[in-house]
């Protein structure tokens, strides 16, 4: 396999030299004919998330607000709802019970901003239950839903118009405002009238509930954006608008990412890797598809963020593209040298998972841990998702080992990518 130094040198040649800095569970699904390989989720182990990239401590008030609002919504629904349609009544009862039970659960280990997302979804579920119940009992009010949606839309427009990227530095502007941009983008999607409130809510109570839930989620999302902004500004005595700095940095980084991407353009958007080796049934095949597809998807996402004026997110996108490209280059050279094609065993998958976890842990020891944490975010979801696949008995060995291999290669590229991004922000 080509060494990391060789890969970094190759990246430098195209203009980015700055980058150098439970019981045992069986794998397999109905489409897998792999040899019998079993793996315990204990062998994979848990993943400790890096320190949150948000530059201040996120207050707990938003969580409490979401929990209390959820309880308020559910309290308006009887525990034994009386609905003319018995099947609807039973589903409303079941959904109410499930939503209430989740209010006592604490989210798994993640960042406070991620935990807020969990609580917003729980609040949405509670609103869906209430909206469904009211629709099914003839108390649905399409006009009220439209009015609330328009109210959120008006507040969103006012908030976005005054969003100045105020921060103590351009680096903190990215770290503080990227999650706020994400929330505003989510809110815009939620205030679209889809699904529309049905003309006959009694006949379609669950569609009515979904419409109510989307508006509630939009309200909660906008409230969190405001809370994060206010919390950050209250902690920083001296801030200034960083709009121009982020626009300039995003353009410079877009250019660097574009030039770097050209070095691997022949390997993008391909279902099958252009190698002589037969990769059927190997981790290498899945690794290549993951690495190639990630670069393509992230490039499109970055384009959308720039078009929408989300320049803090575009800066992070550029760092993630650069890390993704290096992971793809390492994948290409590794496969050409015969790596990722060996026999799959529980030990090989477990070892790859260990290296992936170690690579993620190492980013906290670098020079720019917060930016690195923001850039490494995609791997955290991949690691946990693959672990869930194993736990749910729906995972085949090539995919699992390929995914963990991608996590390792990507995470090892993150510290250099973070340094490159920070340098362009300063």
Structure characterization notes:
- With 426 residues, this protein is mainly α.
- It folds into 2 domains: 234 residues, no CATH class; 175 residues, no CATH class.
- Helices cover 67% and strands 2% of the residues.
- The strands form 2 sheets. It has a two-stranded antiparallel ribbon with strand order 1-2.
- Helix 6 runs parallel beside helix 8 and helix 13 packs antiparallel against helix 14.
- The longest helix is centred in the middle third of the chain and has 31 residues.
- It is globular and about 65 Å long.
What keyword list fits this structure?
2 domains; two-stranded antiparallel ribbon; globular; mainly alpha
With helices defined by DSSP (H or I, 4 residues minimum), what is the helix count? Answer: 14
Mean pLDDT: 88
Strand adjacency order, main sheet: 1-2
- Per DSSP E runs of 2 or more residues, the count of β-strands stands at 4
What is the CA-atom radius of gyration, in angstroms?
Answer: 24 Å
The quaternary structure here is single chain
Q: What is the distance, rounded to the nearest whole angstrom, between the alpha carbons of the first and last residues? A: 35 Å
* Shape call: globular
* Biggest pleated sheet: 2 strands, antiparallel
Level of helix content? 55-70%
């Amino acid at each position: 396999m080509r060494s990391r130094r060789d890969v970094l040198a190759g990246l430098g040649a195209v203009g980015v030299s700055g980058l150098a800095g439970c019981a045992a569970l069986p794998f397999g699904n109905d489409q897998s004919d792999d040899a019998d390989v079993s793996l315990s989720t204990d062998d994979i182990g848990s993943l400790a998330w890096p320190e949150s990239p948000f530059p201040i401590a996120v207050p707990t008030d938003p969580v409490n607000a979401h929990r209390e609002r959820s309880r308020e919504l559910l309290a308006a629904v009887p525990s034994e709802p009386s609905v003319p349609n018995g099947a609807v009544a039973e589903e409303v009862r079941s959904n109410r019970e499930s939503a209430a039970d989740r209010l006592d659960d604490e989210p798994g280990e993640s960042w406070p901003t991620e935990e807020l997302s969990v609580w917003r979804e729980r609040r949405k579920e509670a609103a869906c239950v209430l909206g469904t119940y009211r629709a099914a009992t003839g108390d649905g009010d399409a006009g009220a839903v439209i009015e609330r949606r328009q109210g959120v839309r008006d507040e969103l427009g006012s908030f976005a118009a005054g969003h100045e990227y105020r921060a103590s530095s351009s680096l903190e502007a990215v770290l503080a405002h990227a999650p706020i941009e994400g929330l505003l983008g989510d809110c815009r999607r939620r205030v679209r009238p889809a699904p529309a409130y049905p003309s006959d809510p009694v006949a379609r109570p669950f569609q009515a509930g979904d419409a109510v839930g989307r508006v509630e989620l939009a309200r909660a999302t906008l409230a969190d954006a405001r809370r994060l902004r206010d919390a950050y500004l209250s902690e920083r005595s001296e801030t200034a608008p960083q709009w121009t700095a982020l626009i300039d940095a995003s353009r410079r980084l877009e250019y660097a990412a574009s030039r770097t991407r050209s070095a691997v353009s022949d390997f993008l958007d391909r279902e099958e890797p252009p190698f002589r080796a037969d990769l059927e049934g190997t981790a290498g095949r899945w690794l290549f598809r993951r690495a190639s597809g990630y670069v393509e998807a992230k490039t499109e996402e970055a384009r959308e963020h720039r078009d929408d004026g989300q320049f803090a997110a575009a800066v992070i996108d550029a760092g993630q593209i650069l890390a993704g490209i290096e992971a793809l280059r390492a994948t290409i050279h590794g496969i050409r040298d015969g790596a990722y094609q060996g026999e799959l065993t529980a030990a090989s998958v477990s070892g790859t998972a260990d290296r992936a976890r170690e690579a993620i842990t190492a980013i906290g020891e670098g020079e720019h841990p917060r930016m690195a944490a923001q850039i490494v975010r995609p791997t955290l979801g991949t690691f946990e998702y693959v672990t869930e696949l194993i736990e749910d008995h729906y995972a085949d060995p090539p995919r699992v080992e390929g995914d963990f291999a991608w996590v390792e290669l990507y995470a090892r590229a993150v510290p250099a990518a973070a340094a490159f991004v920070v340098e362009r922000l300063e």
